[in-house]
């Protein structure tokens, strides 16, 4: 979002875990950090008074902020590590060395060894991790060694050498930690069965192992070996909180470009994740303005070419959400399951967040662009012939048939226009009849607009289903406006949208902006109508028993209720208390009325 002022970038950051990158005026990364909540963490740099001079200098140099949204804090920690090692930012002191997080390796060899390592090699071995906690690695290895006897020596256990008796069992064999494969005391098939079980544990499928540990802990407790039971309990807790794999760092996904797209009526947003040696090293989102009715496929093909040229990417494989045409030199993969699908979903998540932030920024910087986009989206979603720049929504309000009223709220360019709101007291309908009430208020509203030669809305929304919509249509027919103004009804239960003469309702995506605008209109009409209804009831309620007292008028009633807060307190008040509020004469009338001194 280069070019957007920092204060606006800060206002639109997401409340999600991720990694943030600070850039200076030349576009160089000067700091990388992780956050549980990106908005809170990044904003703290600009709101706090920093004690360290280095931090103050850093903040002064920040010209642009980029971020990558991830699923968990662990992913943020790993991604931060990758980016710091890749870019070596000036103000990052930690993580610049060549150390990395630990992995657990199952070596590719006869009688495979299982051990921890901080380096991943392309040697055919299986690597599980990375793990952000060394304690988790040690606990897993202890668990594995406790359950399955494995060799720890680095002998080359070829079949010929074992038969030749080149090796002798070591102390581990005599301690029961190894079954002596080096002397042929254990077959390769038996050993590999254990490796299969270990592989499942490292993938997170250790239900059987946990069950065994819990039984062991229970047995220790019954034998009064509480220290041993506590050690087992700690292992169980670590294992239950264990996460087997991370999307951020995955040795199975190496040197790949990942692209996803999110689009609306006017713009497309393409996110790019670059993976090198199993780690995410770059994220970038490109915004593309549509000129014609370009498809997502056309936009994505254009963006992939542009982004790969900009970042000099030579990856031979890309992951995308659907088929694209990029020539024969690039392998195109459309992930459906597993780690590849997870990384594609992460890219799409970042595209969505970028789009949301742009919307928020547009509201602040360019409200016209925001309104134009919303109107174009509503026109398409609701199948209208013109953009609904002026929308009116009607709602009836009555409680048990008393004081029936209606409300009309008005939105212009997607925003409330409160000076155009109108209340209606139902005049021609007796009792609680929502259909007749809707017919009356719609007729009164648009007859007046026509008589006064005022502009008519492009869209009318009726809060209710088919019945209320049909009643409103009767009034439009009388006024000759049917077909000249689009009208729809919204039912509360499932948010169905009903159109005239169409028995099948329209269902919009629950997250669509069009539905959100309609819901906002409906809720505002409901609030405005209820407010008027309450005011009307309150005025009616003022006609209390106080007003029936001879010689006491409405002004006196208001004064008494304002001071004593309720009619009951007025009735229980002493004479001198009443005199202090309304004077001697009126106080005596009220006091005598309630105390039987008529």
Automatic annotation (TrEMBL):
Location of the GIY-YIG domain: 15-93
Short name of any one Pfam family annotated for the protein: UvrC_RNaseH
Superkingdom, natural source: Bacteria
Database matches in Gene3D superfamilies: 5' to 3' exonuclease, C-terminal subdomain, GIY-YIG endonuclease, UvrC, RNAse H endonuclease domain
UvrC family homology region profile domain span: 262-476
Primary residence: cytoplasm
Any one Gene Ontology molecular-function term assigned to this protein's record: excinuclease ABC activity
GO biological process: nucleotide-excision repair; SOS response
GO CC terms: cytoplasm; excinuclease repair complex
Location in or out of the cell: Cytoplasm
UniProt keyword terms in alphabetical order: Cytoplasm, DNA damage, DNA excision, DNA repair, Excision nuclease, SOS response
Known function: The UvrABC repair system catalyzes the recognition and processing of DNA lesions. UvrC both incises the 5' and 3' sides of the lesion. The N-terminal half is responsible for the 3' incision and the C-terminal half is responsible for the 5' incision.
Subunit note: Interacts with UvrB in an incision complex.
Sequence similarity: Belongs to the UvrC family.
Protein name as it appears in the record: UvrABC system protein C
Organism name: Seonamhaeicola maritimus
């Amino acid at each position: 979002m280069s070019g957007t002022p920092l204060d606006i970038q800060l206002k639109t950051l997401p409340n999600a875990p991720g990694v943030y990158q600070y850039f200076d005026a030349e576009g160089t990364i000067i700091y990388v950090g992780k956050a549980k909540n990106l908005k809170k963490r990044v904003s703290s740099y600009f709101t706090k008074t920093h004690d360290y001079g280095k931090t103050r200098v850093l903040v002064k140099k920040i010209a642009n902020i980029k971020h990558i949204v991830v699923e968990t804090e662990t992913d943020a920690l790993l991604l931060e590590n990758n980016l710091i090692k890749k870019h070596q930012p000036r103000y990052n002191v930690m993580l610049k060395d060549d150390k990395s997080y630990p992995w657990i390796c199952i070596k590719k060899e006869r009688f495979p060894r299982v051990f921890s390592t901080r380096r991943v090699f392309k040697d055919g071995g299986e690597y599980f991790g990375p793990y952000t906690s060394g304690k988790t690695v040690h606990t897993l290895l202890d668990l594995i060694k406790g359950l399955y006897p494995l060799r720890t020596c680095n002998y080359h256990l070829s079949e010929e050498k074992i038969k030749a008796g080149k090796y002798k069992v070591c102390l581990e064999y005599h301690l029961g930690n190894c079954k002596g494969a080096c002397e042929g005391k254990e077959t390769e098939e038996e050993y590999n069965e254990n490796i299969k079980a270990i592989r499942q544990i490292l993938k997170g499928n250790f239900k059987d192992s946990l069950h065994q540990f819990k039984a062991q802990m229970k047995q220790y407790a019954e034998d009064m070996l509480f220290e041993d039971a506590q050690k087992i309990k700690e292992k169980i807790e670590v294992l239950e909180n264990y996460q087997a794999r991370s999307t951020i760092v995955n040795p199975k996904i190496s040197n790949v470009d990942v692209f996803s797209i999110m689009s609306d009526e006017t713009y497309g947003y393409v996110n790019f994740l670059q993976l090198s040696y199993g780690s995410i090293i770059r994220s970038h989102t490109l915004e593309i303005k549509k000129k014609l009715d370009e498809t997502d496929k056309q936009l994505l093909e254009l963006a992939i070419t542009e982004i790969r040229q900009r970042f000099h990417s030579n990856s031979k494989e890309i992951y995308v959400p659907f088929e694209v045409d990029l020539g024969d030199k690039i392998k195109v993969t459309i992930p459906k399951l597993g780690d590849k699908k997870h990384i594609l979903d992460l890219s799409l998540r970042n595209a969505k967040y970028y789009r949301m932030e742009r919307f928020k920024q547009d509201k602040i910087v360019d409200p016209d662009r925001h309104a134009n986009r919303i109107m174009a989206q509503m026109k398409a979603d609701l199948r209208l012939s013109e953009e609904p720049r002026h929308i009116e929504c009607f709602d009836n309000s009555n409680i048990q048939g008393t004081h029936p009223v209606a409300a009309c709220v008005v939105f212009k360019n997607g925003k409330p226009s409160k000076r155009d709101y109108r209340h209606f007291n139902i005049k021609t309908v007796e009792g609680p009849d929502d259909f007749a009430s809707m017919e009356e208020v719609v007729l009164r509203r648009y007859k007046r607009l026509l008589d006064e030669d005022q502009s008519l809305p492009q869209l009318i929304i009726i809060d209710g289903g088919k019945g209320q919509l049909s009643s409103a249509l009767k009034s439009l027919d009388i006024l000759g406006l049917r077909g000249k103004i689009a009208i729809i009804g919204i039912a509360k239960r499932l948010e169905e949208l009903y159109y005239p003469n169409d028995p099948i309702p329209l269902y919009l995506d629950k997250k669509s902006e069009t539905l959100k605008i309609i819901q906002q209109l409906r809720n505002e009409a409901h609030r405005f109508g209820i407010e008027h209804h309450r005011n009307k009831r309150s005025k009616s309620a003022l006609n209390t028993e106080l007003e029936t007292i001879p010689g006491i008028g409405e002004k006196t009633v208001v004064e008494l209720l304002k001071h004593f807060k309720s009619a009951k307190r007025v009735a229980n008040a002493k004479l001198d208390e009443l005199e202090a509020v309304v004077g001697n004469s009126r106080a005596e009338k009220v006091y005598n009325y309630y105390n039987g001194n008529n």
